[in-house]
Specification:
GO molecular function, one term: tripeptidyl-peptidase activity
Helix content: 25-40%
Oligomer: single chain
Number of helices: 15
Low-confidence stretches: 1-20, 180-202
Distance between the termini: 75 Å
Mean pLDDT: 90
CATH superfamily of the largest domain: Peptidase S8/S53 domain
Bound molecules: 2-acetamido-2-deoxy-beta-D-glucopyranose
Function: Secreted tripeptidyl-peptidase which degrades proteins at acidic pHs and is involved in virulence.
Shape: globular
Keywords: Calcium, Glycoprotein, Hydrolase, Metal-binding, Protease, Secreted, Serine protease, Signal, Virulence, Zymogen
Number of domains: 2
Protein name: tripeptidyl-peptidase II
Radius of gyration: 25 Å
Cofactor: Ca(2+)
Strand content: 15-25%
CATH topology of the largest domain: Rossmann fold
Length: about 575
């Protein structure tokens, strides 16, 4: 018996081994060189364990995008009829055949996959030696010369022909670290540069020209102060590692600037990838984001998602966060993020996958807001800028990107407001009229410096200069699109509260609405520009422009439009 068993086992191994040995491996992804600054320094120890994620081919990604537009376009019979988790999975889940092909290939290499955040993903932990053999590659330690960041990556990897059609990509293999902290949409301290000389709008206090507080924003955008009532309407706020927000700072902020709200109004915290909100280490970004969501979206349940670094680094945190939200039975109705990256540093496969994940979350009914960045037409990365350099995920057509304005009567573009055109994503249809009319106004200005076929951003804007934020007990002035974005997100959250209270669905993916009927409910911003790369950048103009988008919100006008849609 023992002998027979052994024999059977070795025969089995041989049987499995033989076809594999013959099955040719095909290059699945490659790059000619590591990104600038990275140098291969050494071979990692063969036992070093790599955490890799496998993106499986989704069953119907094109159908999902069609469905997203179907539920997001005013006038469609399915407008704001969002997808349940099960309905979404009909488009996104891999086929049983794909799952089997990939898992049996992994098993034949002795690798066991564990489920990822959604069923589009598998996670594997493999020693370098195994990864090198099964992917016919050689992982190396790469070091970045300036930042000292090191990562185990490869320039190319291969998979068997039988697996290739079922596997989208493996991450992070050829995708190099993008330093989230360095590239985070930066917050600017106001004392350095900004001295506003605008006249005031009658209803907006004169002090708002020097210091933005919640009451300034309420006056500017007609935002209600009455508490929201709907518990199903939730606001999710992103915190990338180490941008903590303090509950005691929030409480003192509310006591000073929202005397009509209980100073005990709190937010909840959910950890992703080991992230922690450290009460004693309040950051500028985290404090700003929490105080201008909890302090603006009065009584809307707000959750702070702290993304840690237990994830192999850089864009993995963004992926893990959006996939966590997609997989929830009731995802948040609004999701706001004030972090981003230079688009030039993000590889195409991960950019596309992440952008499609935002489309999925939009189809579930979430309005997704991102700040455009704080470096005008440049990406804030430093170095030579010979052509305008866009930010990411601003170029993703399935998110709503928020730029910054300053002053009150009228608002003008804030010069830091990032805006431009993606080199990865083409312009979506909802935007094509807006872009062509801007380009004809622009004429030959900046010709050759930007990609006229790209998805353009920002979509909208909000005040972004001289926000009063309580940090470690002291009120500090903070500026940036990081300030504008939570305020636009709060506006949407307050609208959702009214809509849900009236028995209507939340707003979901905003852009098709904003670029059609919605723009009449925004304040068009027509002056100012966003210099960078040795130019004056783009000028703001009547209608959409790549500095302030379609304009800033008017809550009352938006509400009356939406009540009839
Ligand atoms: C702002 O500008 C005015 C007029 O030029 C000047 O008097 C004032 O000192 C400036 N304020 C700051 C803070 O720079
Ligand atoms: C707030 O204080 C903590 C503790 O001293 C410190 O770690 C943190 O950096 C401070 N935050 C800011 C934005 O200065
Ligand atoms: C311009 O954008 C398109 C996508 O709209 C892209 O395919 C093309 O490669 C971009 N061109 C450059 C020079 O980056």
């Amino acid at each position: 018996m023992v002998a027979a068993g052994l024999l059977a086992l070795s025969f089995f191994t041989l049987a499995l081994g033989a076809p594999l040995a013959r099955e040719p491996l095909h290059v699945h992804d490659s790059r000619s060189a590591a990104p600038q600054g990275f140098k291969a320094s050494s071979a990692p120890h063969p036992d070093t364990v790599l955490n890799l994620r496998i993106a499986l081919k989704q069953s119907d990604p094109t159908g999902l995008i069609e469905k997203l537009y179907d539920v997001s376009t005013p006038g469609s019979s399915n407008y704001r009829k969002f997808l349940s988790k099960a309905e979404l999975e009909k488009y996104t889940a891999p086929s049983a055949e794909s799952l089997a092909a990939v898992t049996s290939w992994l098993a034949s290499n002795g690798v066991k996959a564990t489920p990822g955040a959604t069923n589009q993903w598998l996670n594997i932990e493999v020693p370098v030696a195994t990864a090198n053999a099964m992917l016919d590659t050689e992982f190396s330690v790469f070091e970045h010369q300036d930042t000292g960041i090191s990562a185990i990556r490869t320039l190319s990897y291969s998979v068997p022909a039988s697996v290739k059609p079922h596997l989208d990509f493996i991450y992070p293999a050829t995708s190099f670290p993008v330093n989230a902290n360095k590239a985070a949409s930066r917050v600017y301290f106001a004392s350095s540069a900004h001295n506003s000389t605008h006249e005031r709008r009658a209803s907006v206090d004169a002090s708002c020209n020097d210091a933005i507080t919640p009451s300034c924003l309420q006056a500017l955008y007609n935002l209600p102060t009455t508490p929201a009532t709907q518990s199903s309407n939730t606001l999710a706020v992103t915190s990338i590692e180490a941008s903590s927000a303090s509950k005691s700072d929030l409480s003192s902020f509310l006591s000073q600037f929202r005397t009509d709200m209980p100073s005990t109004t709190a937010f909840s915290v959910q950890s992703i990838d080991g992230g922690q909100n450290v009460e004693s280490q309040a950051s500028v970004e985290g404090s700003l984001d929490i105080q201008y969501t909890v302090g603006m979206a009065t009584n809307v349940p707000t959750k702070f998602f702290t993304v840690g670094s237990d994830n192999g680094g850089d864009l993995t945190g963004f992926l893990d966060l959006v996939n966590t939200l997609i997989a929830q039975d009731s995802p948040p109705t609004v999701f706001t993020t004030s972090f981003g990256f230079p688009e030039g540093l993000v590889s195409q496969d991960i950019a596309t996958n992440l952008c499609n994940a935002y489309a999925q979350l939009g189809a579930r009914g979430t309005s997704i807001l991102f700040s455009s960045g704080d470096s005008g037409v440049d990406d804030g990365e430093g170095g030579d800028c010979t052509v305008f350099r866009p930010t990411f995920p601003s170029g993703c057509p399935f998110v709503t990107v928020v730029g910054a304005t300053q002053g009150t009567s009228p608002e003008t573009a804030a010069s830091l407001s990032s805006g431009g055109f993606s080199n990865i994503f083409p312009a979506p249809q909802y935007q094509s009229d807006a872009i062509s009319s801007y380009l004809s106004t622009l004429g030959s200005t900046n010709s050759g410096l930007f990609n006229t076929s790209g998805r353009a951003y920002p979509d909208v804007s909000a005040s972004g200069i001289n926000y009063q934020v309580t940090i470690n007990g002291t009120v500090t002035s903070v500026s940036g699109t990081s300030a504008s974005t939570p305020v636009f997100a709060s506006t949407i959250a307050l609208l959702n509260d009214r809509l849900i209270a009236a028995g209507k669905p939340a707003m979901g993916f905003l852009n098709p609405f904003l670029y059609s009927s919605g723009k009449s409910a925004l304040n068009d911003v027509t002056s100012g520009n966003n210099p960078g790369c040795g130019t004056n950048g783009f000028p703001a103009a009547a209608g959409w422009d790549p500095v302030t988008g379609l304009g800033t919100p008017d809550f009352n006008k938006l509400l009356s439009l939406l009540q009839v849609q």
